């Protein structure tokens, strides 16, 4: 199973499980997250790039994969994603480099899955 498929399957399965608890606060938090990344004063592409930078600086690999996937869906080019990674590395420092490597691996797998 591909890295992309494995991540998406796990995320979907666990989100369904979490939602099955029917907790109002968790549902509201998930909804807030969904609504934050919708089109507004900033377009979705910009918001996903911001989310990716924040995720890399916070060193959350699941978040990074999610936002790399969303950036791919938004049609970012290799040049654009590398500029996003550059900002994240500059802001986050060298501790971000291992996450950067995994992000590039995930980006390349996303591109290969569309070939």
How would the blueprint of this fold be written?
Elements (H helix, E strand, L loop, with lengths): L2 H17 L4 H13 L7 H15 L2 H13 L4 H15 L4 H17 L2
Helix pairs in contact: 3-4, 3-5, 4-6
Give a quick set of tags describing it.
115 residues; mainly alpha; AhpD-like; globular; CMD-like; AhpD_core; peroxiredoxin activity; Carboxymuconolactone decarboxylase family protein
What does this structure look like?
With 115 residues, this protein is mostly helical. The protein has a single domain (3-114), classed as AhpD-like. It contains six helices and no strands. The chain has helices at residues 3-19, 24-36, 44-58, 61-73, 78-92, 97-113.
Strand content: under 5%
Q: Supply the CATH superfamily name.
A: AhpD-like
Structural class: mainly alpha
Class in CATH? Answer: Mainly Alpha
Strand elements, count? 0
Percent range of helical residues: over 70%
Q: Count the helices. How many?
A: 6
| Average of per-residue pLDDT values | 97
* Overall spatial form: globular
Q: Could you give the order of the helices and strands?
A: HHHHHH
What is the CATH fold-level name? AhpD-like
User: Rg from C-alpha positions?
Assistant: 15 Å
What is the CATH architecture assignment?
Up-down Bundle
Cα distance, first to last residue?
A: 17 Å
Q: What does the largest sheet look like?
A: none
The tally of domains stands at 1
Instruction: Give start-end ranges of low-pLDDT stretches.
Output: none
């Amino acid at each position: 199973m591909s890295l992309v498929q494995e991540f998406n399957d796990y995320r979907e399965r666990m989100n369904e499980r979490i939602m099955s608890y029917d907790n109002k606060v968790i549902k509201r938090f998930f909804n807030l997250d969904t609504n934050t990344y919708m089109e507004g004063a900033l377009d979705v592409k910009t918001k996903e790039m911001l989310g990716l930078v924040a995720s890399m600086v916070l060193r959350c690999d699941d978040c990074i994969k999610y936002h790399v996937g969303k950036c791919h869906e938004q049609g970012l080019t290799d040049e654009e994603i590398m500029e996003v990674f550059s900002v994240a590395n500059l802001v986050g420092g060298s501790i971000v480099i291992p996450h950067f490597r995994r992000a590039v691996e995930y980006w390349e797998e996303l591109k290969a899955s569309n070939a």
